[in-house]
Amino acid sequence: xxxxxxxxxxxxxxxxxxxxxxxxxxxxxxxxxxxxxxxxxxxxxxxxxxxxxxxxxxxxxxxxxxxxxxxxxxxxxxxxxxxxxxxxxxxxxxxxxxxxxxxxxxxxxxxxxxxxxxxxxxxxxxxxxxxxxxxxxxxxxxxxxxxxxxxxxxxxxxxxxxxxxxxxxxxxxxxxxxxxxxxxxxxxxxxxxxxxxxxxxxxxxxxxxxxxxxxxxxxxxxxxxxxxxxxxxxxxxxxxxxxxxxxxxxxxxxxxxxxxxxxxxxxxxxxxxxxxxxxxxxxxxxxxxxxxxxxxxxxxxxxxxxxxxxxxxxxxxxxxxxxxxxxxxxxxxxxxxxxxxxxxxxxxxxxxxxxxxxxxxxxxxxxxxxxxxxxxxxxxxxxxxxxxxxxxxxxxxxxxxxxxxxxxxxxxxxxxxxxxxxxxxxxxxxxxxxxxxxxxxxxxxxxxxxxxxxxxxxxxxxxxxxxxxxxxxxxxxxxxxxxxxxxxxxxxxxxxxxxxxxxxxxxxxxxxxxxxxxxxxxxxxxxxxxxxxxxxxxxxxxxxxxxxxxxxxxxxxxxxxxxxxxxxxxxxxxxxxxxxxxxxxxxxxxxxxxxxxxxxxxxxxxxxxxxxxxxxxxxxxxxxxxxxxxxxxxxxxxxxxxxxxxx
Amino acid sequence: xxxxxxxxxxxxxxxxxxxxxxxxxxxxxxxxxxxxxxxxxxxxxxxxxxxxxxxxxxxxxxxxxxxxxxxxxxxxxxxxxxxxxxxxxxxxxxxxxxxxxxxxxxxxxxxxxxxxxxxxxxxxxxxxxxxxxxxxxxxxxx
Lengths: 647, 142
What we know:
The structure holds 2 protein chains of 2 kinds. By secondary structure, chain A is an alpha/beta fold. Chain A is 28% helix and 24% strand. The mean pLDDT of chain B is 91. Chains A and B meet through helix 4, helix 5, helix 16 and helix 17 of A and helix 1, strand 2, helix 2 and helix 3 of B.
């Protein structure tokens, strides 16, 4: 056996004495050679191992370095290329699970590293020759979420010739971006750049849009995901609907319009916005006067193309896909909980999304900015930054978009009304993207928007005039500020979508402490998850702006393409197998298997390799120890335990 | 004994949650005491109670088993099996003259590096209070 100890620059060698570790490893009985190197994962490091395998005829390799999730594949490749089974390799994780967490106790860290190497060697000795298994992978992808992330990923995959199922929970694709008026820093009209993409996705022969639907269940694994989608009844035939609006005109029900952030009303039968894709109306059965029994039925009467049918029920759609991309987006922070701002109490306190809709020519006010209390045009508007972000009590993270959208809205306000005063209370201005700093500078200098550094402590309104008084401290001048404003806009941050938990439950992918999906590695695998074949992108994985969202979406599409393009995929041969003479046919294992991979045939358990995922639940339960888990055998684990306790 | 008692803990971490959570504690540089010897398994459901007993018999002062949160198991429900097995095992421990606190089952996700460090810290202190494994020293002949 050969032991290869990585310095990882100073990450490992800066904490423990790697030479002492090497000497210890070399003193162990089965070790032929032990070496250290600055970066074992580098090409020269790998060469070191290759040379020894050839010259010293090594047949087992242990690397003491980082976590196996990072470089196990790297080193396995080395063994494979030298003609050894890649599974005759073991890693001692002396970085993530040692030097990075025991920085203050280098002596104990060294002792731990010795134990880790010894345990790895004990396991390596018992490792068996295995070979990765190649499985077929098809060309079908599922994308959860039809915002700009999902649309971008879908188009890339579809254009590359893959089949895409694009699932969207609302009646139209487009997502949050469809609600935006203009986008920073280029001032592109949001819908002008989004709607062509929506139409393209809607018409693409390789994209199957499933709107008003949610993913209910996912079973299986890469190359073999079985998905259940629940499609809610739309009551309007997407193909027959012409979008004439006659149904909506006769509908007697009015409810707040979500698309306009609740600033206007929509009917119970409606189209979310004119450019919706699919371009079809939808009957909101929660607000309709009644379908069973039928209460009004006016919409059906007026529908000339006979697109409306009240006999629709939720339908379950079964899909088989090979890869999955999660693009489920975000929820704007709801500031109702922050008492100091009195959002929802004072009429003239708005969120930035409400302001965005007001600024939009197709919005509730046709682009006129008015005070909700009296519909008068405001003279002075105050923005409050970091609402729900960078706050110990709410979310610690920075939402990354609020500085820029506040500057953008402020600029739009000044363009419409050069005499209006716009103040922005901020903690720090984070203008980090391409063209952002220039945009911010120009907003201050040329547009005269006043940025004041300080957190707003309280807002009061005058019960008569509904004018607002904003109290804050100017932390640069070190003095209190009090401003009267007609409107206060809360720059609310990004929070995880309410669906995150449900998606996590069906996909079994991890979520970080901030509530967003967790990437497999923050730098090197930014859109992968820990589950092979499942990717995350856009704001479902953390706050980001549109350019970053699109970059990630296209990265996720590229990741899925890389897996599906060759038609085959390599999986770990970690299946369980039955030693038939030992099996007593008790059948305990059969109901335990989460994948129904075990059957009892003539009083002997049989395991279907294609279904077995190698969890080892059956192995641990078998009273006759007749089941063996490849690469995690009882022998291997027990030798690790024994070695751990040989002190 | 001149030296203060340093608990020696064997950990069984599932590949997807426990082990990944431990890695996250590492990448986040969250410090915790160096008393844990971790063994990676694909699922906490692979933890055969004999593994735990072997570790205790061989002198481990504590055994930590970490799996995914209920409902988040990479293998659908492997962790529920673990939960039942460990509960039963704990009942047996007192017959062996061991405090059942020496075996601890925790659910820690891949995103909970902080929790991983806290759990190890707490467990080390708990075992320190219990003192060394009473079986140690008279079992090596078996």
